[in-house]
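hiii so um. not sure if this is the right channel but i have a protein structure encoded as tokens and i wanna go backwards to a sequence. like what aa goes where. can anyone help
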């Protein structure tokens, strides 16, 4: 009984075979078929090889939602060099609620405003990257992919005591409320005031005002090494002592999730404006560097995506099956056209031969004359 059941099952499986084997005696090989097969196999191998690189690659996916986090603090990472002595300037933040944020996290370091040759090379490279980012936005995805979570590398400045250090590097970070605010660097150290805050600028000589500056780094949120912000590398030089530089910044909260880093950071766009202070001409204001920022209510989620394995296998099957079917149809169509053309040529040759040698014997007799010495009587008898 078991053997019968096995035979029935095997017979049923054979009947369900959708790929019957054709005997080799029924298969005819040709040079054209071999050439097409070689081309098809080469195309399959090349496309499968390229598809493997597509499978290995990743891309960035952007999603948008409302930012519901209002209670957390916003971190501001600062590294700015101003062409004034450290004792003459002060930096602080005043938010929309008239709350003055303590600037204890900022450090004032006397430096030279001029860069060393190595620093100039890096600064020019940074400016070139910023220029390309404005043109090719896909480079931002590459920067996100290569970002590594960790503490940023320390940036050194020339502090040679033998030369006069006339500039000041202000670097560090601040934690502020997630509301609009104004980070500014102006003359004099800040002092508390019942109605806000003020800067003690009376002791600073007006001739020493020079707010030429270079922004080596300015970012919001968690500082991620490798991510280049919008104002990184910005340099403004002025010869006017009374000059105001304004940066209007719109901050967009961003959650970055790649295979190398997962962090809460912020992107921002900026509008720049600068003007000379001249009260006689109606241009009023305070000399200094003012960065007025506002936080967007939308949050961007940036995640790194990868093609799943099943999709890669489906695409490979599509490549192999598509090329096999297409080349088979093309080969059949070309063979059919060749057969039609060759058949017409053969029919033309047949017609030519038929015209030269007619098949009607009566017409042949009319055209062929009998020999003069033929005896018809003897022939008939």
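sure thing!! here u go:
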């Amino acid at each position: 009984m078991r053997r019968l059941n096995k035979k029935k099952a095997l017979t049923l499986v054979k009947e369900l075979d959708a790929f019957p084997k054709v005997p080799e005696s029924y298969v005819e090989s040709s040079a054209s078929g071999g050439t097409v097969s070689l081309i098809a196999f080469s195309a399959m191998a090349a496309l499968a090889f390229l598809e493997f690189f597509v499978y290995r690659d990743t891309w960035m996916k952007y999603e948008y939602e409302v930012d519901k986090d209002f209670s957390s603090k916003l971190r501001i990472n600062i590294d700015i060099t101003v062409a004034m002595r450290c004792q003459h300037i002060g930096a602080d933040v005043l938010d929309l609620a008239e709350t003055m944020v303590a600037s204890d996290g900022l450090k004032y370091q006397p430096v030279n405003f001029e860069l060393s040759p190595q620093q100039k090379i890096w600064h020019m490279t940074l400016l070139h990257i910023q220029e390309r980012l404005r043109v090719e936005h896909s480079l931002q995805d590459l920067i996100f992919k290569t970002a590594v979570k960790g503490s940023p590398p320390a940036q050194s400045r020339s502090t040679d005591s033998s030369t006069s250090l006339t500039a000041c590097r202000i670097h560090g970070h601040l934690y502020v409320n997630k509301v609009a605010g104004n980070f500014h660097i102006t003359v004099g150290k800040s002092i508390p005031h019942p109605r806000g805050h003020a800067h003690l600028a009376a002791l600073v000589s007006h001739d020493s005002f020079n707010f030429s500056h270079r922004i080596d780094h300015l970012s919001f949120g968690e500082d991620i090494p490798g991510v280049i912000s919008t104002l990184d590398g910005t340099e403004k030089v002025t010869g006017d002592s009374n000059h105001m530089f304004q940066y209007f910044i719109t901050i967009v909260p961003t959650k970055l999730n790649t295979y190398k880093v997962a962090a809460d950071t912020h992107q921002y766009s900026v509008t720049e404006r600068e003007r000379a202070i001249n009260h006689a001409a109606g241009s009023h204001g305070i000399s200094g560097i003012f960065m007025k920022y506002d936080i967007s209510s939308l949050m961007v989620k940036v995640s790194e995506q990868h093609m799943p394995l099943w999709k890669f296998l489906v695409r490979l099957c599509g490549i192999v099956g598509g090329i096999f079917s297409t080349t088979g149809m093309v080969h059949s169509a070309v063979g059919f056209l060749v057969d039609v053309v060759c058949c017409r040529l053969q029919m033309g040759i047949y017609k030519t031969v038929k015209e030269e040698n007619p098949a009607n014997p009566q017409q042949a007799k009319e055209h062929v004359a009998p020999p003069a010495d033929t005896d018809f009587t003897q022939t008939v008898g």
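oh and The radius of gyration is 43 Å.
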